[in-house]
Give the backbone structure.
Amino acid sequence: MTPTGPAQRHAHDAARFTELTERASAGDWARPSPVAGWTALDVVKHLVEWPRAFLGGAGIELPALDVEADPAGAWKQHVADIQAIVEDPAGRVLSNPHTGDRPVDEAIDQFYTNDIWMHTWDLAKALGHEVDLGEERCAATLAGMQPMEEMLRGSGQFGPAVPVAGDASAQDRLIGFLGRDPAWRP
């Protein structure tokens, strides 16, 4: 079943990422990731830290979590915190100078849940696993991002595109567009 709505999509994508954090051993967190200069731990820290700050735009203040001390535990707490918000947005609106005003559950869905989904590939690769992000979703995401390529690259959040074969899968094309080598290995 395809998840629908912000709460279902977050629960689905966060669960896939959670499975990876649970499979990691203490020594795995220092492994390099496909994101230049980041370790597996940095991927988790990114997904825990930026949304907690982002939610300040909705008047939501979540306590800091010590990701370094317990990456999997901090991640699980973070997922529970975010899931509670998307399940009961309570009419809150997130105001951000870059994204405008949006209902908080929609803002989380659009900006954060998709980030979890895409970074699932990074964490899986860092830990030596393969992950299928779904061909349809990859193709749709790529089609939505390509018209904004100049803006996305100018933001500094994406590296230069990595060329892939013309007949590459939608997932490999998306990963290459995001600036990662689909064939990357730790």
Observations:
- Strands lie at 93-96, 100-103.
- The chain has two domains: 5-131, 134-186.
- The mean pLDDT is 93.
